[in-house]
Design brief:
The protein contains four helices and twelve strands, in the order αβββββαβαββββαββ. A hairpin with a 7-residue loop joins strand 7 and strand 8. The longest helix is centred in the middle third of the chain and has 12 residues. The C terminus is likely disordered.
C-alpha cells in the first residue's frame, strides 16, 4: 500500500516518487515511461483505489503493474478548520469565473501542485452575505490519481479583508491575514 505523497510535485511525479522511495519496482519508474490508467475505486474503503501503469515500448521495463493505494480526501487536505477554507485574493470580479481560472492561486495558497485536468471547473458564485466574495466547490475529476471527495472554499478580495484586519501578509498576489472569518450579522 502506498503511503503519503509529496503534494508539491505534479500528480504523476508524486506517484512515481512514492513508488520509487518504497522500492516497489526493480527498475526505478519514470513518469514518462508509462501509460497511466484511471484510478478504479476499491469497494469498502473511501478513497482506496487501484491504478494500473503500463510500460511504453521505450521504457526500461515491460508489462504492467497495478497499485492499490489510498487517495487523499480533499476535505482533509484543504480544511484544517472552516476559517482555513478562505483564500484571500485580489483580481476577481468576474462572477462567471470557474475553478480553473483561480487554480494557480489555490495551488500557491496551499502549496500543492495542481493541474486543471485534475479538477472539475465548478463556477464561482458570489456570496450573498459578503459582496465581492466568491464561494466554490473544489472537486477532483474521476481520473485524479491523488485526490477524491470535495470541499467548499471561499475567495475574499483584498478590499474586503483590509477593512477587517490590520496585519496582512502578501504572498504571490494572495493576501493572507490571521483572523477568524466573521459570521454574517
Amino acid at each position: 500500500m502506498l503511503g503519503s505523497f509529496n503534494l508539491g510535485l505534479l500528480r504523476e511525479e508524486a506517484f512515481v516518487a512514492k513508488v520509487n522511495a518504497m522500492k516497489l519496482t526493480s527498475t526505478p519508474l519514470n513518469a514518462n515511461d508509462v501509460n497511466w490508467g484511471v484510478p478504479t475505486p476499491v469497494a469498502g474503503t473511501p478513497g482506496r483505489a487501484q491504478l494500473t501503469l503500463t510500460a511504453k515500448p521505450e521504457a526500461a521495463f515491460t508489462g504492467a503493474v497495478t497499485y492499490t493505494y489510498d487517495r487523499l480526501d480533499v476535505e482533509e487536505i484543504f480544511n484544517v478548520s472552516k476559517e482555513d477554507r478562505v483564500i484571500h485574493s485580489i483580481g476577481l470580479g468576474v462572477t462567471t469565473a470557474g475553478v480553473h481560472d483561480v487554480l494557480q492561486q489555490i495551488s500557491s495558497f496551499y502549496g500543492i501542485a495542481m493541474q486543471a485536468s485534475d479538477w472539475t471547473n465548478s463556477v464561482l458564485t458570489e456570496d450573498n452575505n459578503f459582496a465581492g466574495c466568491y464561494n466554490f466547490t473544489l472537486t477532483p475529476t474521476a481520473s485524479n490519481i491523488l485526490f477524491y471527495g470535495s470541499v467548499d472554499l471561499k475567495i475574499w478580495p483584498k478590499r474586503q479583508i483590509t477593512a477587517l484586519v490590520e496585519n496582512i501578509t502578501e504572498t504571490e498576489g494572495l493576501y493572507i491575514p490571521s483572523f477568524q472569518t466573521p459570521n454574517p450579522q
